[in-house]
UniProtKB/TrEMBL annotation, chains A, B:
Superkingdom: Eukaryota
Gene Ontology MF term list: alanine-glyoxylate transaminase activity; L-serine-pyruvate transaminase activity
Protein name: Alanine--glyoxylate aminotransferase
SUPFAM superfamilies: PLP-dependent transferases (SSF53383)
Domain Aminotransferase class V, residue spans: 44-375
EC number: 2.6.1.44, 2.6.1.51
Family, as annotated: Belongs to the class-V pyridoxal-phosphate-dependent aminotransferase family.
Catalytic activity annotation: glyoxylate + L-alanine = glycine + pyruvate; L-serine + pyruvate = 3-hydroxypyruvate + L-alanine
InterPro entries: Aminotrans_V_dom (IPR000192), Aminotrans_V_PyrdxlP_BS (IPR020578), PyrdxlP-dep_Trfase (IPR015424), PyrdxlP-dep_Trfase_major (IPR015421), PyrdxlP-dep_Trfase_small (IPR015422), SP_NH2Trfase/AEP_transaminase (IPR024169)
GO cellular component terms given for this protein: peroxisome
GO terms, biological process: glycine biosynthetic process, by transamination of glyoxylate
Modified residues (N6-(pyridoxal phosphate)lysine): K208
Amino acid sequence: MASLTVPAPPCLKRPLHVPHRHMFGPGPSNTPDRILQAGAKPVIGHMHPETFEIMNDIKSGIQYMFQTQNKVTFAVSGTGHTAMECAIFNAVEPGESVLSTVNGIWGERAADVFERIGATVNTIVAPPGGFFSLDEIEQALSKYRPALLFVTHGESSTGVLHPLDGLGPLCHKYDCLLLVDSVAAMGGAPLHMDKQGKIDILYTGSQKVLNVPPGSAPISFSERACQKIFNRKTKPVSFFLDLSWLANYWGCDDKPARVYHHTGPVTAFYSLREGLAMLAEEGLENSWKRHESVAEYFHAELESMGLKPFVKEKKARLPTVTTIVAPHGYDWKEITTYIMKTHNLEISGGLGPSVGLVLRVGLMGCNSTKANVDLVLTALKDALKHCHKSKV
Amino acid sequence: MASLTVPAPPCLKRPLHVPHRHMFGPGPSNTPDRILQAGAKPVIGHMHPETFEIMNDIKSGIQYMFQTQNKVTFAVSGTGHTAMECAIFNAVEPGESVLSTVNGIWGERAADVFERIGATVNTIVAPPGGFFSLDEIEQALSKYRPALLFVTHGESSTGVLHPLDGLGPLCHKYDCLLLVDSVAAMGGAPLHMDKQGKIDILYTGSQKVLNVPPGSAPISFSERACQKIFNRKTKPVSFFLDLSWLANYWGCDDKPARVYHHTGPVTAFYSLREGLAMLAEEGLENSWKRHESVAEYFHAELESMGLKPFVKEKKARLPTVTTIVAPHGYDWKEITTYIMKTHNLEISGGLGPSVGLVLRVGLMGCNSTKANVDLVLTALKDALKHCHKSKV
């Protein structure tokens, strides 16, 4: 047997060190110990009956969080991006026309994925902080006749909560599926998947309002979406994300038994179940109201200290991720670095089209409290006092 | 605001219950408490410097485990299937010719993924328990002139350890990349990514010899593979698995800064780092030897109780997953069910082409001990005594 050419790395001799930190950026958010402990329970098999029961509980929890009766409801084994690709890979075939509404980074990324699988992609673009009226969307639907419309409910890069009312019926009038990304808003802002029209495909992530470590992503497909997907002419590009396999693994189809597809991340399922249980304990409407009132308090206090919310229209402000106009004369990067160093607290700058324009503060799930708002305000005031201000 | 139509599910009121169990199937394997506790450390940001340091440690650990100096070495945010798709999506363009060696389920699955992305797929097939000689592979390379060859190092469905010596030079003679799946063998059987030829793309999973919960998958790309990938004419179908983005997120390229790509599953990284640290503590060669000697003891004891190893050639037997010829006259399903129920111990039946033909016992990482072999033997003897035997 040949001898080793690469020796054991000395860096692995150091014990793992992870600091405690206030996670008030756009995500991941802080994870309560109860959820971390759930994720530290022993590994059992991805096909064991106890795992199937945990997966069934997760399905019920997601149906509650999404307010849907959709049978095909489950968690993707991955982060929000994986869920986005799961939705797009399954719902769209090469050559089909799709429409992506772009008012921040997520519409751009969806457009990128559509292109990669050979769809004909059209976009409508709003400036950072903006969103689309039903009229604007109808014009585009009528012009491009897409098979699918992509909308970001919670645009975490710009702090916009996109209105969803009326979108479902509009899409259906044009024989178009409605795909909604609610990674950053779900659980923190009202959404009724079935009553709103209905939304055909909806997904979120674990690491935002649910306060679960990143690594699983709830998703749901309407019957209309399934009709299209299960009658595709071509196979989706991914076996791992193929809905016919995933729906079976999650017991969402009518087959008598679940078949091995991939090795589900069982400990991620444990913590996801715990996060959903905590949401059910508080009650979805209570969570919505708490996020709303904490955000209102936050926005009022920001204005009273002379800072401006980036999103002008009050009802279009995300209650989970607040964007603040980058304070004039300051280097935003110096502010976030100072706050991290001095207050052990993460807030962040912009992302994609909002880089340089905003500061972003996420208060999601258990982080959404007035006490945490006060922590952020204290840190911001301190930063504005100590960071370098140009004389311009 | 509309009222809720889906009430909170009562099932989530029950506390999460997960049993302790001997995980002696083909994976996931048992996870030591040390690794579970590492994964329960607090969530910090996927772009925080402490996370980058953990990711750097993981890279070094994987380079050690794979015995490679490849710069582009990292962990995919997903299970082994995600790593398979990461390799295939990046390394192959639509219309290219590929060759998959099929001697169990993994070659079949790779062929499926190749087809999905529009490659021209050729296969050579060996019966379950078999493998391919260099001559057979050379014939196929010369006939099909593929851009890439797929080989399964540890065929967990049939218990075969595929010989790798000579494959690299052979592939390179035919200007073909060598892609090796070592999900089930890595860390438990000798492999030298660089010295063996070298292997161009290699991946494994976390939940086998590493004893880490499923959800991360080490992978490495040779410079030759990167040359091809970074000069593609088309974008890979997946943004999430696009190597140019992933290599940057993992600090494997020459760019000055890492750019946000996706939200890395940070707690999965913590536990992966811990698993790699434990492997480095034991030493790779010691781990190889331990798996080999435990497997030899196991196979000898099986024969002494009248059971037959499924793989005839000794040197082609996987030291991590042992396949046993399904005992004549018994229903294999009754045996595995009895052992689970009576001994709280998982062993499994076949998968894909080996269904009905074998029992499979995985003793991987910390599970690979003579004491655990004795547990399995006791359980098997008990099952053969108590399960129903036909008189045929």
